[in-house]
Design brief:
With about 70 residues, the protein is mainly α. It is built from 3 helices and no strands.
Amino acid sequence: TPPPIVKCEVHTKKPWTTDEVEMLIKGVGRYSEGHWSLIKSDSDFGPGLSARTNVNLKDKYRSLKKMEMI
């Protein structure tokens, strides 16, 4: 018999708020690009970015750079 099919949890894309983007930019200013876990664990930025993963932060920051918004 074939193995059971395991369904993955579906993640819906949640638009970034202006506050989240500002916290991300300030976090990169404090810790520099690439230190996503430090930004998320910071008491100033972490609570506002709790719904985002480290990969979300990296991808959003990369997108902001490409759009020349930072």
